[in-house]
Amino acid sequence: CANSSDPCFVSTGGCPSGCAAGYRGESCTQPCQSGKYGKDCISNCSEFCVADVNRIPVCASINGTCLNGCEDGYMLPQCDKICPAGTYGK
């Protein structure tokens, strides 16, 4: 299978254990669509990642790290944790 360590099904080219992080599709050759990440691209980027012009949060397709930073009050890498008391900003 492309982008996977498993051999693919001979009849369909599909990957028996799913795609590696960052890829999707039957043969695991399609990168994650915007706003998605992880194995088979089933995880959503944090809603607190800074979004693109289409208002879709931007994150790394492999691990969900927010590429454009976080909305105010949240911390990298995945903008899923609130800033500690007494701190502020991005």
UniProtKB/TrEMBL annotation:
The keyword tRNA processing does not apply. It comes from the Eukaryota. This is EGF-like domain-containing protein. Keywords: EGF-like domain. It comes from Arion vulgaris. InterPro entries: MEGF10/SREC1/2-like (IPR042635). Coiled coil: none annotated. GO terms for molecular function: scavenger receptor activity.
